[in-house]
Amino acid sequence: MAPLKKSKKTKKSSKKLKKNKSVSMVPVEPRVNEPDWWDSFWHKNSTTPGLLIPSNEEEGFKYFFRVAKKTFDYICSLVREDLVSRPPSGLINIEGRLLSVEKQVAIALRRLASGESQVSVGASFGVGQSTVSQVTWRFIEALEERAKHHLKWPNSDRMEEIKLKFEALFGLPNCCGAIDSTHIIMTLPAVETSDDWCDQESNYSMFLQGIVDHEMRFLDIVTGWPGGMSVSRLLKCSGFFRLCEAGDRLNGSIRTLSEGLETREFIVGGGAYPLLPWLITPYENDNLSSSMCSNFNAKHEDARLLGVRAFSQLKGSWRILNKVMWRPDKRKLPSIILVCCLLHNIIIDNGDQLHPDVALSGHHDSGYGEQCCKQIDPMGETVRETLAKYLLQK
Q1: Where is there biased composition of kind Basic residues (predicted)?
Q2: Closest CA to 96 of 34, 49, 47
Q3: How many Å apart are CA 137 and CA 133, to the nearest integer?
């Protein structure tokens, strides 16, 4: 059978396709002729009235962007391909020059670190509000995809290191982390308000739950859930809970203690959480007449506070999470929260040091009362008693 002849329409469509294809090719990052972005930013912002900005440029860089220059360069390397993979139309400064990847990353980090308005952040860089919005969201999308390896549950070898550190620091054998949660407060338009999003303090908020290791690195997070639910309910809605209940997480080797005592892997949490075989909470106050219980609570509290401190550092470093968000897109807000957690971990993973005064001076959930969960699993009670006896013997 003779091959079919191509119609003129097909040829025309083919030419059109080739033309379109040539337009959508990945562009090479443009050569930027603007002066070094940091020099101009530092000159413009280093003497801002009312801010205690370090006089040293290296420390000043960290003040504005929360990361050292080396870590900043690493972040740029993660997102560079994504930020130059689309024509940067509209991403220009007031002089009409295209923005470099470094300047785009700086704009996004400053927006997340300061929590200032897009207008204010744009003014400090010489760009408009729409540019700040576009740059920040492109950065969030890129880092969310490219930095996944900085927030993952540890493998067995890494978990053994974490358990050894928890025991050395707090005396708790086979402890794998500390859990806590915080509210991200926001305003919502009337059409989106509901009792689900209205929390115990009558704020509209979104929950963030995190589990951290001995270095306050996030090992697991869950967010996107309404702040109106209880902390214990948030836990039970998480994938982490389902994995633990199914025996697929915190399922490592049993640790044999003195005199035949043994304990499984577990994490520690406050009284807002249920007492479970793998989540150990403190004894209630009416049980503290026993020296065994009070001794256990003291050790438990020291370990649990790692979660509190991690959230204080997270919301202090990335102040966008600590300020009231003005009508955020609730579908996009989880990505913003995740990226801030990724940046928190990147700082730790790169051996970077934050300024000691960056963390919030008060509690990360200032104004929120302590929730109390009365759920007690008998097996969890046994694990807690075993740990309490072991600590008293030591």
Answers
A1: 1-21
A2: 34
A3: 6
